[in-house]
Specification:
Blueprint lengths: L4 H17 L3 E2 L5 H33 L6 H11 L8 H15 L5 E2 L3 H16 L1 H12 L8 H17 L4
Helix pairs in contact: 1-2, 1-5, 2-3, 2-4, 4-5, 6-7
Length: 172
């Protein structure tokens, strides 16, 4: 999953707009820009930590003379040491940080929804901007090779596989 810096502001604005409009959180109108900035800061911190983990992994590879094929494994290990999520769990980590920010932020007047509801909505906003739904669709179609497309069996299998992948990525 790649979060482009140019998408940070629109994602942050949409998260606040959707959560406020759907009655999940209450933010006074004059505080909305500040809450958006808080979310932007969380996303930027995620990107900074992700780069830091990658840099540490590269340094360890060089110092220890380990093959570059171990880079991913080493990155996951360092991320785990830092209590940091990457890959499929990255959106969960970011959503958790945003929810925690809402809890301690005096700019958010009230939180009406439970964490799991907020998390799903936040992840859904990210999914729209990051093209995750199209990615899940492609992956589901690639996995279904033994059933002819357009048949009722294919529709059932596609929905099952799509839901399985979407659940894994936090979209459902």
């Amino acid at each position: 999953m790649k979060i482009y810096r140019g998408k940070i502001k629109p994602i942050s604005e949409d998260v606040v707009t959707i959560l406020v409009n759907e009655g999940d959180i209450e933010v006074p109108a004059e505080q909305v820009p500040e809450v958006v900035l808080d979310i932007e800061a969380i996303i930027k911190e995620y990107l900074r930590l992700e780069e830091e983990v990658s840099s540490l992994a590269r340094e360890r590879l060089q110092k220890q003379g380990i093959s570059y094929t171990e880079f991913g494994k080493l990155r996951r290990m360092i991320a785990e040491e830092k209590n940091f999520e990457m890959g499929d769990r990255a959106l969960h980590w970011i959503a958790h940080q945003i929810i925690e920010c809402f809890m301690i932020n005096d700019r958010v007047a009230e939180i009406y929804s439970e964490d799991h509801v907020l998390r799903k909505k936040i992840i859904r906003v990210f999914a729209q901007y990051l093209g995750l739904e199209e990615q899940v669709d492609r992956e589901a179609r690639e996995r279904i090779k033994n059933v002819a497309e357009g048949t009722p069996e294919w529709d059932i299998e596609y929905q099952r596989v799509y839901n399985q992948i979407a659940r894994k990525k936090g979209l459902l």
